Amino acid sequence: MFVLIVASDEGSARDVGGALEVDERIKTLRIASVAETGGHGGLHPDAVILISNANPATALGCTTLRQDWPHCPILVLAAVAAERDIVTCLDGGASDVIAMPYRPSELRARVRAQIRAFANSAEHVFHIGPHRFEPATRSLLNGVTSETVRLTHKESEVLKYLCRAGGGTVSRTTMLREVWGYKEGADSYTVESHIYRLRRKLEADPARPCFIISEEGGYALVGAPPRHWPALRVVPPVSLAG
To answer: How many alpha carbons fall within 13 Å on the CB side of residue 209?
Structure first.
């Protein structure tokens, strides 16, 4: 899970990042202001956290973030949490507002809950290199040819599982258990045949795959958002007004 933290205060961002990364599944990246998000459009976070006071400027920040990531969960950590400020943030595009000081375990739980809901929504998409995969519609938009390819239910489930592995190797045994519900010892040909069909739909040259790579005992997806994102990074603050 990749969480983008937007905060002008380096110390607050590091505290929040550290609190989130107690959960080893969560990796964070910091940018200094909402104005900086324009240069990070290539990122595909699972959630965004905006650290600020709950005021109209924060609502403006939520609106700007929502333009960059229309469906991604946006959580606001607010030093001021009066009812009208919470309403302003929510109306501005926030998915949730959490008052500071926050409880780290609750923050992690709220982030996971938002990501879980987003992952199960019709708006959730995965980007595989230049391609766009929409599990809800079982469609794959080829970013090179602009053609849309339809996937079968199981093809979609296999590709989604590989995406969520974040570049890690998924064994055939794991795939059989998690996607098909088979017990140990089942024939792995079922997985191999689905991988073969997915490569024909995803790869420019299925015989020389660039995205679904064979690994020892299984497969890995190259080009999906990785599990291990860059360490928390500091960039110079940029004023929202600028």
So the answer is: 20
How far, rounded to the nearest angstrom, does the alpha carbon of residue 32 sit from its chain's CA centroid? 20
The pLDDT, as a whole number, for residue 122 is 67
**Phi/psi class of residue 146: alpha, beta or left (left: φ > 0; alpha: ψ in -120 to 50)?**
left
In this structure, is the dihedral angle defined by the CA atoms of residues 171, 176, 177 and 179, taken in order, positive or negative? Answer: positive
Per residue in 20-63, pLDDT (tens digit) is 999 887 888 888 766 655 545 556 788 899 987 555 556 667 78
* Alpha carbon distance 199, 192 (integer Å): 11
130-189: pLDDT as tens digits? 898 988 889 999 888 889 999 999 999 999 888 877 788 999 988 998 888 886 656 778
> Bridge partners of 4?
29, 48
Strand residue runs (E) in 114-157: 126-128, 131-134, 139-141, 148-150
CB count within 10 Å of CB 39 equals: 10
| Most distant CA pair in the chain, distance | 61
25 closest CA partner among 54, 46, 53 = 46
Among 22-36, 100-114, 192-206, 219-233, where is mean pLDDT lowest? 219-233
DSSP classification of residue 177? I
* 176 DSSP assignment: I
Report the 10 Å Cβ neighbour count for 78.
23
d(CA 103, CA 142): 43
Q: Cα–Cα distance between 146 and 137 in angstroms, integer?
A: 16
Phi–psi pair at 200, nearest 5 degrees: -65, -25
